[in-house]
């Protein structure tokens, strides 16, 4: 594969550099400016430290899918990152509520950033982030939407000793068998989704039901399907009568849906994500499977209801990270929804919320550490303390760097019950996070070394 052009030399839709929301160049150390004595003396260089913190700004590398089957979700995630950077740079009250020591910037340094289109492909994400690390001395990188990308960036971060704050990633493996010392994740994932939505499904649909699963063929799909099926079979006697596994970007689901139609399933559990979820759901309706079968979305897809229509998602249960009507319960959620909508013109989906929180919590961890030195920042994440978030109090689990946070259960509204054009879901329950999580070593997490 030909190496993509440097984002510093050829700004484009696929790659661009910014500070706040304005263009900016690299952050090389100005001539004659010496490093602070404590930065040079206390620790030997590691990763991009101390070169990446030598000036009055630090650089963040962002990779999200801007093309391909996850592009819509990637753009929403990017907006969350951009708003967080803007808020951190200006010392916005919402950021200060999450990271009280943040004034303007992180440790007084403004944030600059670059964006690359990962197209949900691990190789493209790794190549882009390697450029940001090498050329821009990125002090932190982020990306995801595809868990395959997140796992690949975990490995890059550990190798390069540059912190990776994970974007959207639903795979158990991200903080399980593929966890790393240099990676952290704040959003919910397969295990927590299953244990949150499982009781609702048993309550509404009862025990001993027959379910058909639709699963994307990579780490996210397989781990979410396994977690949901394990919960329902163990606790409710449900039977998986078929599991239809499809590749990312499949244009036609007719063969999979034919198998489901002939399986005797009563419930369709669609684990597909992004545009794949939209297409498979639309085609399931055209095949006559919906509403004959009950549809379940165990890992909610941002913008799904908008794309398939509220008549399809009416009564559908889903587990999610955030829904904008939580503004009625949490003051910080209200601040976020209002500022996001004012800037971007629509209610934020959970991808944007997840991205915003990842940067806000990173700022808090750095400020708590009092340094950008990576091992100290990591130890800051690993130091147990209660933190504010858009969905209440949260904390990091030191052993696997997974945030302990609630999972939100939503149910699709009737079109006639929608208060506005974006009022697709009602919040059924905010499920506390700690009881949903597996033991820290259950999925094989061994994070590795600090240096």
UniProtKB/TrEMBL annotation:
CDD domains: PBP1_SBP-like. Keywords: Signal. Residues 58-413 form the Leucine-binding protein domain. InterPro entries: BCAA_transport, Leu-bd, Peripla_BP_I, TAT_signal. The keyword Signal applies. Residues 1-39 form the signal peptide. Belongs to the leucine-binding protein family. This is Substrate-binding protein. It comes from Ramlibacter alkalitolerans. The lineage of its organism: Bacteria, Pseudomonadati, Pseudomonadota, Betaproteobacteria, Burkholderiales.
